[in-house]
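Figure 6 in text form: structure in, sequence out.
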């Protein structure tokens, strides 16, 4: 049985110069595990380190020390080129603002991802259409961003991140610009995609209303990962119980 976590961070420290001959510790000996097929909510006050954790997990920032493994690969031992390749092939990033290209249709937003990877244009269009169908946009493939609602644009954003078939999906405040109903739709979609595709999804969120939909919740304070304050969906294991163990998909 394959038990290697999709994402594993061990004793991760991230420090910045504070401008006064000292350092600011953004991450303080963080241990974090995300298993395939599970979605974890990452919550905490502003400045607690949530975005820093996501950036290190995405290989966008190198930790000052500690271990970061994505799909079994030790990220800290890779060159900059190696980290870029790992990020391209194994990590999907979803930001709160979709940042879609205004001149491209929903389908073309996805196809351009495979263009950059040198893949077949015809196959890319097939895959893009399949993924857009999976996120409920089969009737909107020819629409440009200004013709889509906020929720639809975020769905295109999610679909675009799935084009690389990532092992790890990192999501930063996906509902920040949406109303409650559309926010719930987006979170439910992320949960469904996580389980169907077997990704390890980490979602930074300020909206705790939707935390019970996810498999686990982790709380950050002052750069440290605290024990969860909230139990995830009924029947799901707490985050501190899933470290080193596989969390089963619930429901």
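Output sequence:
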């Amino acid at each position: 049985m394959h038990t290697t976590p999709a994402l594993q961070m061990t004793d991760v420290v991230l420090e910045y110069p504070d401008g006064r001959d000292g350092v600011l510790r953004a991450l303080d000996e963080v241990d974090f595990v995300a298993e395939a097929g599970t979605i974890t909510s990452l919550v905490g006050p502003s400045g607690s380190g949530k975005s820093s954790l996501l950036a290190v997990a995405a290989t966008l920032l190198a930790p000052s020390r500690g271990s970061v493994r994505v799909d079994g690969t030790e990220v800290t031992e890779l060159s900059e080129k190696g980290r870029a390749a790992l990020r391209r092939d194994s990590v999907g990033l979803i930001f709160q603002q979709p940042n879609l290209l205004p001149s491209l249709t929903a389908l073309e937003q996805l196809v351009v991802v495979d263009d950059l990877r040198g893949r077949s244009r015809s196959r890319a269009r097939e895959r893009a259409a399949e993924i857009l169908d999976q996120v409920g946009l089969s009737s909107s493939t020819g629409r440009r961003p200004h013709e889509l609602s906020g929720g639809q644009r975020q769905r295109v954003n999610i679909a675009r991140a799935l084009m690389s078939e990532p092992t790890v999906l990192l999501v930063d405040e996906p509902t920040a610009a949406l109303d409650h109903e559309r926010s719930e739709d987006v979170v439910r979609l992320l949960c469904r995609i996580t389980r169907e595709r077997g990704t390890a999804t980490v979602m930074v969120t300020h909206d705790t209303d939707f935390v019970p939909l996810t498999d686990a919740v982790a709380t950050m304070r002052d750069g440290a990962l605290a024990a969860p304050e909230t139990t995830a969906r009924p029947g799901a294991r707490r985050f501190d119980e899933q470290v080193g163990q596989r969390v089963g998909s619930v429901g």
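Caption detail: The longest strand covers residues 23-34.
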